[in-house]
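Please, structure for the following, as tokens.
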Amino acid sequence: MKLPVIPRRAAGFTLAEMMIVIAIIAVLASLTLGGYNYAMRGSKRRTTEATMTAIQSSLERYFDKFGEFPEPASADETVEVMPGKSYRVGGAKCLYQALRGDGYDAIKGAENSAAGGNSGSAGSDGNFDETEIPNVLFKDMPNTMWRKLNNQHFMIVDGFYRPFQYIKAAPQNTGTAAGGGGGGGNEQATTINTTYDLWSYGEDEINTNTLSIETIENEALANKWIKNW
């Protein structure tokens, strides 16, 4: 008598094997994502450093042309750059106008100096007329170096697409009790350097309202910053 042929059970994963496979996939995905994030942070920092170098070179040309570094008209102006996160933009707007030549209302006293008595529009509009073109100090500025926020705020940004921070030193900053930017006479220090402080908060998501001068007493505040001091 012939016994009936019982079909073999199709091979498959057990629950334990499935859990192991899922765990391996999760680990690989985590490693891949971590590596990608690390590479992106490195790229953004390198972009920020290159932009900072370009800004400093352009500021030197500004000084050679006008005999002083530009001063933000509203250094403490803040704008919500991302939901729930506000940054000071006065310095970034000042840098944009001083180096790109587009407008002059963000530069203190610019109407009689950097703008050469410009009678055109004081605000930035992204366009250039014949009175603005002579004020361009950073020719061929890449579009990645600046952004327009809320259709009115033109500003220089870092590799993280956030506004650069810039403060001009107070007048007569010739000495310092803290290593760089103290004030002469009764002038109170506003910067670490005797010329200007320029920095990006980098990956720092906590100390984004901290000023450069505040890091003298606590250097750890600026651990993630990219700065010129």
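The chain has one domain: 45-227. The first strand starts at residue 78 and ends at 82.
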